[in-house]
Amino acid sequence: NAITNTSTNDVINHYCFSVTNSAHGSSFTGTMTLVWNRQNMQASINNLDLFLYNMSSSSLVASSVSLVDNVEHIYVPQLPAGRYDLEVLKHGGAITTTNETYALSFEFFSVQLSVTSTTNGILLSWPVFPDGFQPQAAASPMNSSWNWINTTPAITNGQNFLPMGTGSASEYFRLCRFRSP
Questions:
Q1: What does the alpha-carbon distance between residue 92 and residue 48 come to, in Å, rounded to a whole number?
Q2: DSSP structural state of residue 3
Q3: pLDDT digits (tens, 9 = 90+) for 114-153
Q4: How far apart are CA 64 and CA 32, in angstroms?
Q5: Strand partners, 32
Q6: d(CA 152, CA 138)
Q7: Which of 110, 112, 33 minimizes the C-alpha distance to 77?
Q8: Per mean pLDDT, which range of 6-10, 27-31, 153-157 is the poorest?
Q9: How far apart (Å, rounded) are the C-alpha atoms in residues 127 and 159?
């Protein structure tokens, strides 16, 4: 997108959206990134900032502001369901150019791990999308050494399914983004 202002006025582009799903009370992970380039024949960059507001309370949830960087990033790991306003702000005052082109990306997701009892143990299930999640197991929730479960799950109707036999010492499970060793 592009944003234009005069030398004295701040300008804001708004991106309003609802973060909801059918799982009552679930929280979301939100990542938002704003990038722009130094314009041709310019010694400096325009000053853009990124803000996330809760539209119900008009409260600031998170922001990314910098005078020198051309990347702003917000990460919110426990975002409640609701309506939000993601704002791109171009500052007036000492500006490089009045017009700025930028790229904005954002992702909001809630991944729920389901644990179901079976006659042979338990069945773990979670959505295929967003991808990159893999289950971990531990004998205690306070255990600092969670272990990756390296068994490939079966996929049916957009869900991962992973049976766990009764011989497992692990009683606690969680989903984490998979990282290669």
A1: 10
A2: E
A3: 888 888 888 999 888 878 888 888 888 776 788 888 889 9
A4: 10
A5: 74, 106
A6: 18
A7: 110
A8: 6-10
A9: 4
